[in-house]
Amino acid sequence: MNKIRVRLADWQKDNADIRRIREAVFIAEQNVPPELEWDADDNTAVHFLAMEGDYAIGTARLLPDGHIGRVSVLKDWRGLKVGDALMQAVIVEAQNRDLKQQMLSAQVHATPFYERLGFKVVSEEFLEAGIPHVDMVRESRELA
């Protein structure tokens, strides 16, 4: 396996890769209706791609208000720290944009992953696209 790297993505230029990953993970695997997966926020979000060589294997997005979403890694690359690399890149970008707080809605099964990254559960469980979720928040550490 090559070293995984994460880069900023361009919604227009990298659209095919972003769509391929999110369609495989959310629409095909998790049965999220396509009309819920694609939204107007994609146009204003900062997008990220995790790459192995020239092949995109994961994606995430950061909204201007600090919401992180659509974190997804293709099945064959899960368990290889791709999600960690993606989230670290998103958190660094959020901090570079002076977003003091990062927020996300996590699938309940993924809460331990996000807790390792400093997120805390701040809501009761709720259904989103038929999948149990909780809201989570991470406060940026002030640099001394």
Automatic annotation (TrEMBL):
Chain's gene name = yjcF
In the UniProt record, does the keyword Transferase occur? yes
Gene Ontology molecular function, alphabetical: acyltransferase activity, transferring groups other than amino-acyl groups
Name the chain's protein. Answer: Putative N-acetyltransferase
Q: Which UniProt keywords apply?
A: Acyltransferase, Transferase
What is the enzyme's class at the highest EC level?
Answer: transferase
Q: Ranges for the N-acetyltransferase domain?
A: 4-144
Task: List, alphabetically, the Pfam families matched.
Answer: Acetyltransf_10
Q: EC? A: 2.3.1.-
The answer to whether UniProt assigns keyword Coiled coil to this entry is no
